[in-house]
Amino acid sequence: MAAERILVVDDEEAIREIVSSMLTTAGYACKQAGSGMEALAVLTSEEEFELMLSDLMMADLDGIGLLERTKEKYPDMPVVMVTAVHDISVALRAIRDGAYDYLLKPFEREQLLNTVSRALEHRRLKVENRTYQTNLESLVEARTNQLQAAMADLERSYDITLEALGDALDLKDAETEGHSKRVTTFTIAIAKAMGLPQEHIPMIARGAFLHDIGKMAIPDAILRKPGKLTPEEIATMREHCYKGYQIVKKIPFLADACDIIYSHQERFDGTGYPRGLKGDEIPLGARIFSVADTLDAIMSDRPYRSAQSLQAARAEIKRCAGTQFDPEVVAAFLEMPDSVWEDLRKDIDGQVPRIAYSAGKS
């Protein structure tokens, strides 16, 4: 291990030689400077010092001035002031200004070595603590990145599972095959057009995708009935909102999305179901979904009618602003160019993007 380097600064050569001799005998590597200015020149060389011993009273640049010039540039190098008895008050000021300690002339060899040893140990601890802190911060950053990657993988796994549920629902309710995927994509597009925070969009997308999951609990005889439903059957069908909510609320990952599932059949004027919510009482995600759902319904083939045009869908949604739909959502929807919906439908027909990836697209 290399000897620790000490810079001895004093304008009296005899004192420099004595101090350097004591320190060299103790195993330290010493270099001398006869003034404060000379010490600065030595310090600015490529050589690094673990400690500086400086006389307090020197002509040219005194110990206080030298300390002020070096403490910011060499923060790890402790400075020990050497002074006479009558200059103790100045030495104490130096300590307040950043010096590690002071030695009173004349001093014994043991006093010198003890002070030097303490100062160097202080430096070692200071450097080790900073290294530890840096390593700790790097470790925390690495662990945080690993956690974020694991959470992203977990979210992707959840979304793949959700898509499997949506596919199962499509098999049960063939009339709306692909509807969940289309309406999710449309909901994401409107949410982005409204400038919603990016972190909110995946939750809204999941709620939109699972909006009809409660239909899994509706008897097939009602769900697949080709003719008109009776009032009792309509009441049973309307239970799918609450049943979907009950299914999803048990999954912590979907805690926020379940409110969209529960509210997706509410109307802005309060005439919807199951709770008759009105205006802002309806979660924003559900209000956005409502427009996207109607857009897809009008533009899709149904057993009782053929698909209608985008212009027809726009006109109907505009007509129902303030009654069925939130006017602000409708306004955002109407400002979106026709090409957006044409491109989205082509993308969906070609390859359906996963929920999380759809939400993350710009």
TrEMBL record:
Gene Ontology molecular functions:
hydrolase activity
Q: Where is the Response regulatory domain?
A: 5-120
Query: Domain named HD-GYP: which ranges?
Result: 154-349
Q: Which domain of life is it from?
A: Bacteria
| Record-linked PROSITE patterns | HD_GYP, PROKAR_LIPOPROTEIN, RESPONSE_REGULATORY
Q: Which SMART domains match?
A: HDc, REC
Which CDD domains does the annotation name? HDc
Q: Which residues carry this modification: 4-aspartylphosphate?
A: D55
Pfam families, sorted: HD_5 (PF13487), Response_reg (PF00072)
Task: Tell me which InterPro entries the record gives.
Answer: CheY-like_superfamily, Cyclic_di-GMP/3'3'-cGAMP_PDE, HD/PDEase_dom, HD_GYP_dom, HDIG_dom, Sig_transdc_resp-reg_receiver
Q: Which UniProt keywords apply?
A: Hydrolase, Phosphoprotein, Transcription, Transcription regulation, Two-component regulatory system
Any one Gene Ontology BP term? phosphorelay signal transduction system
Q: Which NCBIfam families match?
A: HDIG
UniProt-listed PANTHER family: CYCLIC DI-GMP PHOSPHODIESTERASE TM_0186-RELATED, CYCLIC DI-GMP PHOSPHODIESTERASE VC_1348-RELATED
**Name recorded for this polypeptide:** Response regulator receiver modulated metal dependent phosphohydrolase
Q: Which organism is it from?
A: Candidatus Sulfotelmatobacter kueseliae
